[in-house]
User: Fold ATP10 protein-domain-containing protein from Phyllosticta capitalensis.
Amino acid sequence: MHPVRTRWSLPTAFGSLKVCRLCQRRAFRSSTRLLAAQSPQPQGKPSPTPVGQSPASYKAPSKSEGFNLETLGRPIGFHRPPLPGENSGEDTRSLQERRDDFVDWDTHIKRRKELTKAVSKPYFRDFTNMQYERGKSFLANPRVFRADRALFFPNFVGTTLANSSKPADTTLVLLNRISLVSVYSSDWALKQVQTWTSEKHNPDLRRLLDGSKGIAQHVEVNIETNRLKHAILSLFKGRLRNERTQDDWDKYFFVRKGITDEIRENVGIMNAKVGYVFLVDGACRIRWAGSGDAHEEEKQYLNKGLRTLIAETTGSAKSKIPPQVTQ
Assistant:
């Protein structure tokens, strides 16, 4: 039985043309096939991208596709020294400045690019990358970076175990001290960091820190951007205090705001679910870095690097700090 054809009038230069819906569907299918035939077809399969080179990549390629961890061959960090108060995540602009940014075209384009980049990042990317080397991003360097070529560790703002109400800056804690900085955001990442720093896995490191007579210290940065999870984490502060000496309470930071993609990419924190460790000198320069689970030789590199930095500090009267840092 022939389907009912509903006719409608299509205005033309010569009057009205009667067209049924069946003819419309046939014309649409024909035009769709024509466009598909004219569209260029992708040639071959795109080459895999190594982990850490593309922040928006969905997953790291497997070893069968050519995935191999590479040594961190160049300094990481920022070219400008950090300042206390930076990266707090708080908008300190006046109402007039906010209005100006709202109508400014350049600011609009910049914000639109940021939103596009955030939307294009797959939600499960970090979880997917965990299947490759347990999320390890890079191999640690055998030696520390030279002081004249090292880049700066950014400032983080958060509360500490010593004071839960007043914001504190990591830069003020890192100045004039050799610091082993641990950065993590989950229990999985914490366990990875402990393969580098705990007395069970690396007793030589703990002896170096305890025997440095205050020259070296261990600073922990616990990042949790989710408001609810951050509130739950605050309930365990009592247990965290019991696990540390009172002198170390002001060296444990809870950070929720100010962690941008720019900071993660410059410092090498390519996977938010993985733990990272850094050796930072008294001028807040990153002299060495490690990621994920520690290999045996990497722990030796860490211990050797800490000894080198301690020797540099004790060999000079005082670490040279750029004047911008003390502002």
